[in-house]
Amino acid sequence: MRASAWRIAAGRAVNDSTPNVGVLAIQGDVEKHLAALERLGARGRRVLGARDLDGLDALILPGGESTTISKGLTRFELVKPIQAFAEAGGAILGTCAGAIMLARQVLNHPVATLELIDVEAERNAYGTQLDSFIAPVDEPAGDSVEAGRFSGMECVFIRAPRLGGLGPSVEVLARVDGEPVLVREGRCWACTFHPELTEDLRVHRALIEDFSATAAA
C-alpha cells in the first residue's frame, strides 16, 4: 500500500497535492521542524497518537533525549503504528535522537527502537553538550549518485550519535570527517545532526521530494 492510501483513508481529496508531514511531538525542537516544513510549502502536524498519522505522507522524528523518546513511543502506543506507516510507504526522517530511534541496534546505553534502518547507532558518540560543534559535509558529499545535492551543507551536532554497521541496502548520502551523517534505506532517512537549526532546507526538501517523486510515478 502506498502512502497515498493513508490520504484516502483520512478522507482527503485525491487532487490535494500539498505534502502532509507529521512531527513526533514527544520531545525535541518540534517548532523548528514545523517552521522548516512551512517554508517548503508543506502542511505540518504534531504527532502524539496513532490517529495523528492518518493522511500523512511523511513523519519526522526530532532530536532530544533518546531514552525519553523511546519511552514516549511506548507510552503513546506509537511503535507498531509508525512501523506500519513505514511499511505502507510513508517516508520517515529521524534527526539526532530520532536517528537512534530508527536504528536496528543501539550502543552505549541501549534503548528500544523502531528498527527501521539496518544500522547501529552509538549514543553520545562525540561527547557531552559542551562538545557540540558545527562542521561541513565532506567533499564529495557521499556514496550515492544523489549525494551531490548536500555538498557544502553545514551540520550542527549536539550530543550526536555515530552510525556504524551499515547494512547492504543502506545508502550514505553525506559524511563529515569520513563518518556517515545522513543515510537512507528505502524511504527511511537517518540524520545524526540537526538540519532544523540552520537556514539550509535541503534535508527537509529531500524528504519531501522523495515521497513526491514516488507518488508521481
What does this structure look like?
The protein has helices at 4-9, 30-39, 66-75, 79-87, 97-102, 202-216, and strands at residues 20-24, 43-47, 58-61, 91-95, 103-107, 117-122, 133-136, 154-157, 162-164, 171-176, 179-185, 188-191. By secondary structure, it is of the alpha/beta class. The chain has a single domain (4-216), classed as Rossmann fold (3-Layer(aba) Sandwich). The strands form three sheets. Strands 2-1-3-4-12-11-10 form a seven-stranded mixed β-sheet. It has a three-stranded mixed β-sheet with strand order 5-6-9. The longest helix has 15 residues, at 202-216.
Features:
about 220 residues, alpha/beta, Rossmann fold, 3-stranded mixed beta sheet, 6 helices, globular, disordered N terminus
Give the structure's gist in a few sentences.
This protein has 217 residues and is an alpha/beta fold.
Rg from alpha-carbon coordinates: 16 Å
Spatial arrangement of strands, main beta sheet: 2-1-3-4-12-11-10
Number of domains: 1
CATH topology: Rossmann fold
Number of strands: 12
Mean pLDDT: 89
The amount of helix comes to: 25-40%
Topology (elements, then pairings):
Elements: H1 4-9, E1 20-24, H2 30-39, E2 43-47, E3 58-61, H3 66-75, H4 79-87, E4 91-95, H5 97-102, E5 103-107, E6 117-122, E7 133-136, E8 154-157, E9 162-164, E10 171-176, E11 179-185, E12 188-191, H6 202-216
